[in-house]
Amino acid sequence: MKDLLILIKDRANLYKEEFIDIRRHLHQNPELSFQEFKTSKFVCDKLDEYGIEYEKGIVKTGVVALIKGTYPSSKTIALRADLDALPILEDNNISYKSINEGVMHACGHDVHTSSLLGAAKILNELRAQFSGTIKLIFQPGEEKLPGGASLMIAEGVLRNPDPASIIGQHVYPQLESGKVGFRSGMYMASCDELYVTIKGKGGHAALPHQNIDPILISSHIIIALQQLISRIIPPTIPAVLSFGKITGNGATNIIPDIVELEGTFRIMNEEWRAIAHQKMIKMAESIAESMGGECIFRLEKGYPFLVNDDRVTEQAKAAAIEFLGSENVIDLDLRMTAEDFAYYSQIKPACFYRLGIRNKGDNTTSGLHTSTFNIDESAIETSIGLMSWIAIKELSR
After folding, report:
1. What is the pLDDT of the chain when averaged over all its residues?
2. Do 102 and 155 lie in a common domain?
3. Residue 323 and residue 2 in contact, taking contact as beta carbons nearer than 8 Å
């Protein structure tokens, strides 16, 4: 296996510029969730170039490819990357800046896709060196409910052949390039979207006794819901409720008829998730009614929590230590962010790890979902090589 590790490292170094260019092409041509038609075609064109068989058109823009080693039926594992970008206007001064105004790869999916293509090229060239099959999943719509993962699963992405495990990666701006991070067990939270409409009776702000003030009702609801979450959920279960948008089109002297709230609820326990849903809706409706108004509480249930299988994750971590050295492999903390890779992790033994992309020296330090997000592109070599090695090690178990 040591000789194979060296081969992979050599190819990752040889191909790094090719896949940096591919990443730049993808970055310059981002497409929104479930609209990744050109991105999907680009992936298919590359797979054709590498001589890898694939099926396209899954959930319209998804692509699934197979790399068959010796004894293909002995074991199958899956590698996944997401294709979509975000509705963000890019503010970087770079040659490969997005040409689709208001759309940007600000979450690193361009890195994920180019990395999986890079691993695909390496693994396909070395297919005589391993036994089993590697399934490559290029998935649309990670950034938008109901999540492309759930839709691809419904269309059979985890069948024919059925992978024994699935592995994915995500860029991590808080970690230096050349390093990666792992965490076994619970890792990321479920994610629900809250849309709350409070109806009152607007009028002159100097005559509040003649009105039913939806702004006042909304303030009571926000505070009460925050207290509810902090009081009913056991402290051992991570949970967070945040409202990020309040719209009430009144003025300094006008009380509006309606206020609209938008927020997110995240937790790492499905039982308490369901309990919190019921209690939040009941409390908000009761407060509005008690103050003479009406509350319409719409809750869109999003991704489940993401759990990393202990065995798969520890083996992937051990492979990373072999490939990069122990000094470049860290243990990750729990995150209250969400990822639709969680759907796969609920069905199959999974490992979702983090790729360092930070470089203070060239000021690539912006966070995810920001208009100045970018990466230290030396991470591409790390990414394509490590993913290839993890895949081969997982097949050999």
Report:
1. 97
2. yes
3. no
Instruction: Specify whether the CB–CB gap between 43 and 113 falls below 8 A.
Output: yes
- Sequence length of the chain is 397
Average pLDDT over residues 110-122: 98
Q: Confidence class of residue 397 from pLDDT cuts 50, 70 and 90?
A: confident
Last residue of a domain, one of 252, 279, 301: 301
What are the helix (H) ranges across the chain?
A: 2-28, 37-50, 109-125, 148-154, 214-232, 270-290, 310-324, 341-345, 379-395
Question: Rounded CA gap, 272 and 180, in Å?
Answer: 32
CB proximity list for 81: less than 8 A, separation 6 or greater: 109, 112, 113, 115, 116, 136, 137, 138, 139, 168
Instruction: Judge if 289 and 201 occupy the same domain.
Output: yes
In this structure, which amino acid lies at residue 185? G
Residues above pLDDT 70, as percent of the chain: 100
Q: Could you tell me the residue range of the domain that residue 202 belongs to?
A: 192-301
| Per-residue pLDDT band at 1 (split at 50, 70, 90) | confident
For residue 219, the SS3 value is: helix
Q: Is the pLDDT of residue 33 over 80?
A: yes
Q: Do 34 and 166 belong together in one domain?
A: yes
Do the beta carbons of residue 254 and residue 283 sit within 8 Å?
A: no
The DSSP secondary-structure symbol of 253 reads T
Distances in whole angstroms, Cα of residue 363 to Cα of each of 62, 88, 173, 287: 34, 20, 11, 48
* Structure token pair of residue 383: 């990414």
CA distance 156 to 282: 38
